[in-house]
Amino acid sequence: MEAFATNLCRCEEKNLHRTIKPRVRHPTHCRQPPGNTRTSYRAVTIPVISCSMAIGSKSRPRHLPKKSFPAYAYLPGRHPHPVRDPAGHSYRVEPMPVTADASLGSDPFLWGLDLFNHGYYWEAHEAWEGLWQVADRGGPSRVFFKALILLSAAGVKIREGKTAAAVRHSQRSAKLFRRLNGPSEHIVENALGLPPAILADYAEAATRVPAALRDVPLGRPQPVFDFVLGSDCQGH
């Protein structure tokens, strides 16, 4: 736990005096209409998490705005494999260097946030895997990065329409996020803008209430989660 807090100190310092609350957006159909407050309404129970999963036009800012996104958002079987195929968007491209003491303010972590938030889920998983590999085995940082990797994998499966696999990945991700409590919980909330327990609920809800996916051109990214990771963005 001490190593986790030390390695992520830059993120902690940046948000030291900031209280972050979960960002929950409610579509207009979930709000009571203005006007006569005495109007009677039939009592209906609508889970807040269900309302938040209605994917709409949402501002998705950038953490590393000067870095260009890949040429396409990879889906297995539909595009060249990004690193194995000579036609892949990252073929023979050196990944960002990762060090064992990388913090949540490091470029590899922030690049993963950008990729995830904008619908490049396979690419986000790749960005975070390097951080997971160098994290202390059994430590909270390793649990944290594994949870993000599984959440990204769930995003890929949702886009592929593979519900069973999406549910499996999202449930595993949620289980890991719920293990991050105590000091780790505060650090994760500062880094992602959401407490890990809330993020776990969102991960599970994404497969219980699937996003209404649009038809998009092959290769175009498509966000499937109605939340944005990251508490402080540097540009748009």
Automatic annotation (TrEMBL):
Q: Which InterPro entries match?
A: DUF309, TTHA0068_sf
Pfam families assigned: DUF309
Q: Give the top-rank taxon of the lineage listed in the UniProt record for this protein.
A: Bacteria
Entry protein name:
DUF309 domain-containing protein
